[in-house]
Amino acid sequence: MEETISLKEIYEVIKKRFLLILAFVLGAALIAAVVSYFLLTPTYQSTSQFIVNQGQNDQSAQYNVNDIRTNVELINTYNVIITSAAILDEVIETLDLNYSAGSLAKNIQVSSAQSSQVVNVTVTDPNPILATEIANTTVAVFQNKNPEIMDVDNVKVLTEAKTPANPAPVAPKPTLNIAIAIVLGGMIGVGLAFLLEYLDNTIKTEHDIEKRLQVPVLGIITHISPEDIRLDHMKAGVNRKGSDYA
Question: Which has the higher per-residue pLDDT, 242 or 190?
Answer without folding.
Answer: 190
